[in-house]
Amino acid sequence: MGSFSIWHWLIVLLIVIMVFGTKKLKNIGSDLGGAVKGFKEGIKEGGAAPEEKPAEGAPVTNTVAAEKTTIDVEAKQKS
Fold first, then answer.
1. Extents of the domains making up the chain
2. What is the full per-residue pLDDT of the chain (79 aa) written as tens digits?
3. Kindly report the CA angle at 39 between 65 and 44, in degrees rounded to 5?
4. Which pTM was predicted?
């Protein structure tokens, strides 16, 4: 009585498919797979040797600031 049988898991799977639908479950699976793939690539990059630093006289650029995007919002005044 303490463990679930295969029939319990099949019923749970059927209910999940009925609630979420197969398309949404497929999207969740592909998103999860992409996240795992990205995590593995990040782990591999973390173990690689660091990139060379620029020479003493070379200008330093901030690439993070260049990649930021602005968010357009609409401000409303209080009356």
1. 21-47
2. 567 889 999 999 999 888 888 888 888 889 999 999 999 998 887 766 556 665 666 565 555 555 566 666 676 777 6
3. 90
4. 0.39
